[in-house]
Fold this sequence. Notes:
With about 325 residues, this protein is of the alpha+beta class. It has helices spanning about 20-25, 140, 145-165, 240-250, 300-310, 320-330; strands spanning about 5-10, 35-40, 60-65, 70-75, 90, 95, 135, 175-180, 185, 195, 200-210, 215, 230, 255-265, 270-280, 295-300.
Amino acid sequence: MWSRRRLLRLGDDDFPLAPELWGRPDAKVVACGADAVAVTEAGSALSLDWQPTAGAYDAAACWLLDADRAWFACASGPWGRFRWPSPGWDTGDGSNCPAPSWDTGDGSNCPAPSHRAGVLPSPKGQREPSPLSQLLPLRQAWPMLGDEDAAAAVAGVALAAWHASHGFCAACGHPTEAETGGWVRHCPGCGIEHFPRIDPAIIVALVDNRDRLLLGGQPTWGKRRSVFAGFVMAGESLEQAVQREVGEEVGLDVDRVHYFGSQPWPFPRSLMVAFTAHVENPDALHVDGHEIVRADWFTRQQVRQAWDDGTIDPPPPMSIARRLIDTWLRG
Ligand SMILES: [Zn+2]
């Protein structure tokens, strides 16, 4: 599901590499907002080989390279400036910028790349797509993208969302500044370094003694039914979070809690940690009526039938929830 290619951070020391990286024929760029990613208009053949338009996007940038490396630089929020490298690229003042460049903040264009990462100069709310691209919500774009593009888009959106919401220091209130290619925010006021926040959440497939799977629905889901998820609370282990969430939402006791896998879920900053678990008392099922309004035990045949006839909808194809269900369906 995920590329084995390592996503490397493009840090301060690496930024002089940027022109070389961009010059490679397999370089790609991904432009992201806090909840969206830009993709080319090519139907199902969407890719991130795209030249963004000035002022159109909040942004993160990614250079995908050879077989085992992917360098990643990120937006730094409205305090920085990032000029997208593109032959003939309009820098916004009528001049063209032939090479990767970063605005030093003194009004000059096309300077040598510096240590500063930045964002496209985009007034908030101005997100008009260029003729070559469209900005899609990540949830919508994700299933269309290949594994590597999806991984880059997920990282870009996660970081862009973090920058968008962490412009000020939580310790002293001073405006923070992006560093290390956008992977760190530094506070000039008190010297603290801030790192991207990730909220762990558990997601669990519950199976009973008859090998049935429990699928539930939240109030806003319509016909979608899925496995069960919730955030890990402070001081809690992942296993304790599984037991608590299942108890709270459907009143069941679990044992045999086994790790299944994980998935970044940047809506806006989750890491989904997936488990399977066994339920000894399936008949004790009762939904909380708040987070979960409907839950039923399904055999494999019943799930396939319900998906086929549209009685219920599955979770999104790229989600680890879907992977949990598909794995169970294969027996
Ligand atoms: Zn501070």
